[in-house]
Amino acid sequence: xxxxxxxxxxxxxxxxxxxxxxxxxxxxxxxxxxxxxxxxxxxxxxxxxxxxxxxxxxxxxxxxxxxxxxxxxxxxxxxxxxxxxxxxxxxxxxxxxxxxxxxxxxxxxxxxxxxxxxxxxxxxxxxxxxxxxxxxxxxxxxxxxxxxxxxxxxxxxxxxxxxxxxxxxxxxxxxxxxxxxxxxxxxxxxxxxxxxxxxxxxxxxxxxxxxxxxxxxxxxxxxxxxxxxxxxxxxxxxxxxxxxxxxxxxxxxxxxxxxxxxxxxxxxxxxxxxxxxxxxxx
Amino acid sequence: xxxxxxxxxxxxxxxxxxxxxxxxxxxxxxxxxxxxxxxxxxxxxxxxxxxxxxxxxxxxxxxxxxxxxxxxxxxxxxxxxxxxxxxxxxxxxxxxxxxxxxxxxxxxxx
Lengths: 282, 110
Description:
Chain A contains two helices and 19 strands. Chain A has 282 residues and is mainly beta.
């Protein structure tokens, strides 16, 4: 039963504006389509979104009636522009938070329509858990396993920059590009991270996670990102949601950021536990 | 303690450009200049207190938009004065902002 946690992002850099007049498109490498699942079981565990300058409303629809009530407006979410500060300051607005979730099914495609003001940027990201995604055996641990294998703790700087086009991911940056203290042969469990500048989405990607993204928002109102993945795991006690990689693979663990402003540089400090053994199987 | 009064209270803004150094394993890549942030201060009798930090492109885009609207209004006024003849717009395109670099000389306090 290969399991996967996948982050996807959809965006539009400059909306035309009007009542549900714009449809978001998936960022490069991401998808609004639900892949073929062996068990047909998947769920969106978290979702967050932002409008760069004004209030927006998102209508999330899907084709399956088991997933979303109807295909007209489906699930509607408000997105206020200045949560906790001026427009352009917050990271994103929570849209789906545990313990709530949204079921998704094989072959379905999500549609995200937005009501917004012309020339705004809208960005929505979501984490989906697939219980059985062929070809993937993603390396995730639970907190008990990480604690049992705990050796030391480390914070590592990496400096990804968002794209010059609002909403899109910028150039990927390896976790050893700015700070190379990862030790080959050691296992690292990523608890979370901190940032200097709010950013809508921080994405991690590597072969140990099936080359799928996972990640989190960072900044107001998501201020406890230092243990974001631990908290997520604790909200789903039976699940392993803390990403793990080996220090030998640091060069292939890539961090990317997407934001509602162009060229945002949040300066990510990753917080990780160095483990004696692989906590993902320990 | 008696309540203090302030003879002058103003707002100040400071653009703080940013850069990213090249990756450790590829120093030849060169540093990348970034727009950075605009710090907004309340100034009480000369003493600055940071009110907010706004991503610089958000501020620049707002300025471009205002200049664009101003130019369009000017064009409209010129056209009216010319007896209904249309004139070409000289408005700046906001999208052009994102290709520009932000040298240190952009840093200024207003």
